[in-house]
Amino acid sequence: MKRLLAALAITFTPLSLWAEDVTTFTLDNGMEVVVIEDHRAPVVVHMVWYRVGSADEPVGASGVAHFLEHLLFKQTDILEAGEFSATVAANGGSDNAFTSYDYTAYFQRIAADRLELMMQMESNRMNNLAITADDIETERNVVLEERNQRTENNPNALAREQFRAALYQNHRYGVPIIGWKHEMEQLALEDALDFYDLYYSPNNAILVVAGDVEPDDVKALAEKYYGPIPAEPQLPERVRPEEPPQRAERRITYVDPRVSNPYVTRSYLAPERDPGAQEDAAALVYLAELLGGSPFTSDLGRALQFDTQTAVYTNASYDGSSLDDTSFSVAVVPAAGVSLSAAEAAMDQVIADFIANPIDPTRLESIRMQLRASEVYALDNVQGLARRYGTALTQSLTVEDVQAWPDILQAVTEDDIKAVARKVFNRDQSVTGWVVATQEDAS
């Protein structure tokens, strides 16, 4: 089997040769445009990404980025509240928006011959939002209820907030995207408009158009609708506060009577994908899968769920899509009768054994093939491709970085994985959390 895998690997075509057909250009006002051609269906995805997210919010106004995302579906100088989405739906399309730590994005998926209408409406709300004090009151209640449903009513979500705030004590990644409740309650019209006026500008935006389009046609439409919008001369340099050196492990016990199963989790600071330097991030993708991917094949799953039955659930996770330092996390839900301290000790032993012992080459090649297949299948998802480029470009990566990523993943070696594991698994740069229903469970 190993010889067969090696033989197959030799015949593989580099994924970079299968890269999607991408054209880029910049408008005179500084707006970047990315066109991804896919002519297999008469459909287009139109996305506008702003290089601003919750980590760029003013101190004391957490949640304003997400709040403003909601408000952009209100009225403009030519559109009534709700008319934007109603028009998209009436033309057979769908639309939505999302906010992250590093970006805010708006998108429509629609028939290709409706692209001009989408540009007309989206460019209008970039510069002509007409929200009122009544809108603020109504939508603030909406986002507060969203927080109640997703966070306040979920003990695991509340615990994650506390752990993240402990991991990032200085960087704004420690503040939840939706915002702290007491600050959300104070968000005012001025907060939203100040944020909008400063950051919703063409020189802070990336237009991504993917699907059945021609680059020259997209350029002509972009120049017609986005081109006249003036650049923001006061746009600040994107600088975030950095984390000071962490010199000691941080630990939190979160107690909530709604917790059904106690568990232990640990997050380590970890490198993100950087322009021209994505190798460590690629190795961490493998590390997460090897350590805590499938419960049937990962080290944590086999050792704790099957060999010793110490746990009923194990996991390791990593997401390298981040402008600044991200995290690598592991989690264990102990079996009945197993204490959290015993579960944590067993988790640590698996990590130590992983670093000390060689990686099974068959497992490594299996993951390599899975990642390769995933990258090939991704080429069939036009909206996913648009999102991939938008996310990367708002987080300082380039088109070349995006297209190099699949081959960088394929080039990861056992030595790369072991090296990054030794670097990341530093208890002095981690937060360990115990989540329990009662204090008596914290043992």
Would you write up a description of this structure?
The chain has 443 residues and is α+β, with helices and mostly antiparallel strands. The protein is built from 16 helices and eleven strands. The chain has two domains: 19-225, Metalloenzyme, LuxS/M16 peptidase-like (Cytochrome Bc1 Complex, Chain A, domain 1, 2-Layer Sandwich), CATH 3.30.830.10; 250-441, Cytochrome Bc1 Complex, Chain A, domain 1 (2-Layer Sandwich). A hairpin with a 4-residue loop joins β4 and β5 (104-111). Residues 1-11 have low confidence and may be disordered.
Task: Describe this protein with a few key phrases.
alpha+beta, Cytochrome Bc1 Complex, Chain A, domain 1, 2 domains, five-stranded mixed beta sheet, 16 helices, 11 strands, globular, zinc, metal ion binding
**Residues in helix, %:** 40-55%
**CATH class of the largest domain, please?**
Alpha Beta
Number of strands: 11
| Mean pLDDT over the residues | 94
**Low-pLDDT ranges:** 1-11
> What percentage of the residues does DSSP assign to strands (E)?
15-25%
Number of domains: 2
The CATH homologous superfamily name of the largest domain equals Metalloenzyme, LuxS/M16 peptidase-like
Number of helices: 16
Helix/strand structural class: alpha+beta
CATH architectural name of the largest domain: 2-Layer Sandwich
Oligomeric state as shown:
single chain
Radius of gyration based on Cα positions: 24 Å
Overall shape: it is: globular
Write the CATH fold name of the largest domain: Cytochrome Bc1 Complex, Chain A, domain 1
- What composes the largest sheet? 6 strands, mixed
State the end-to-end distance. Answer: 45 Å
Strand order of the largest sheet: 1-2-6-3-5-4
Q: Can you write the helix and strand succession as a string?
A: HEEEHHEEHHHHHEHEEHHEEHHHHHE
